[in-house]
Predict the structure of ABC transporter ATP-binding protein.
Amino acid sequence: GCELTLNSVTKVYSPGTEAEVRALGNITLNVEPGEFLSVVGPSGCGKSTFLQIAAGLIGASGGQVALDGHKVNGPPEGLVYLFQQYTRSLMPWRTVLGNVEFAIEGHRMSRAERRDRCMNFLAMVGLQDFASRYPWQLSGGMQQRVAIARALAAEPRILLLDEPFSSVDALTRSDLHELVLRLWEERGFTAMLVTHDVDEAILLSDRIAVLSHRPSQIVETIPTELPRP
Ligand code: ADP
Ligand code: ADP
């Protein structure tokens, strides 16, 4: 996994206008290689903003973001972002399998190899029988499972998760928690999860960063010491 560093990061939306929102106050945080860090905080405090800046999806207003010491200026290679809204991840014109295959489209391997690998990830989320369907033929929770299969198939070095489990039912959620944890342990990628669910944060992560109301600051970071399932 790679190391993510945020140094005095601030974010103001629409600065100098009536619509100005000071989202991030001053965020300094170091996520270690292979660490699983969760970010919790009240609704609207800037958790998604924080994650999108870490991913290079939007720019910060001040401060620096670096991945393995390299300044982040756009989505870096090896970084995978899982959106809360699966509708932002899946391409409606591609089948379920086609969506997962997209994650490794550039990889050098045969068509059959790519297909097998992606079918394997679909099986991990219990959707092997839906490979030839289209996303809109699936329920919301199933679509999110496809998005999760795709994120994992990409073999990220760092995985950023923006509440990806909130749209699935409780039973599926606990299966997906186990799957993500298992792959995280096997593959050693760095993971950062944004959630409003403190129990989920405790279950999944090594450390929890608690944000204040906006303009948010990190109030404290708490190591979790509970044994994993
Ligand atoms: P959280 O994920 O903690 O709910 P967000 O990062 O989504 O918080 O939002 C933080 C604040 O910034 C909120 O007040 C939100 O309305 C505002 N905000 C988020 N995105 C934008 C945007 N693109 N333009 C203007 N304001 C935004
Ligand atoms: P969350 O609380 O999970 O961040 P939101 O509903 O706040 O979800 O935000 C969903 C999306 O809308 C995010 O991409 C965010 O950047 C964007 N957004 C949120 N608030 C605003 C806003 N005031 N203006 C424009 N975009 C916004």
Remarks:
- The chain has a mean pLDDT of 94.
